[in-house]
Design a protein that fits this description.
The chain has helices at residues 47-56, 75-95; strands at residues 36-39, 44-46, 71-73, 97-98, 102-103. The chain is an alpha+beta fold and 106 residues long. It has one domain: Zinc/RING finger domain, C3HC4 (zinc finger) (Herpes Virus-1, 2-Layer Sandwich), CATH 3.30.40.10.
Length: 106
């Protein structure tokens, strides 16, 4: 169990749940998350939006899971997602060359 304010050491502990086009967007206002926070159920929100929501209920606004008010800074996870996305693009470009046929034309 993570305590409020405890830093997550392993990136696997928190993996943002959303479609690629929604990564980094607040689950409440649907805008790019400002001062992003991530819940223990792995949903991301603007700090202002989630704090306001948790004043009413300690449940995640997206999946309704009990959060116990536990939040972590989500910027690290957004940055990691961007790095993974860039790496996948690079790997995909490298896959376009095949030894038998040469370069594939996009």
């Amino acid at each position: 169990m993570k305590l409020r304010g405890e830093i997550v050491e392993e990136e696997e502990d928190y993996e943002i749940k959303s479609d690629d086009e929604d990564k980094g967007k607040c689950g409440i206002c649907s805008e790019e998350a400002k001062e992003p926070m991530i819940t223990k159920c792995n949903h991301i929100f603007c700090e202002k939006c989630i704090v306001q929501s948790l004043r009413k209920t300690m449940r995640c606004p997206v999946c309704k899971e009990e959060t116990s008010g536990i939040l972590n800074n989500g910027q690290y996870f957004i940055d990691q997602w961007h790095k993974k996305k860039a790496k996948k693009k690079t790997e995909k470009k490298e896959e376009k060359f095949t030894p038998t046929t040469g370069w594939l034309i996009p």
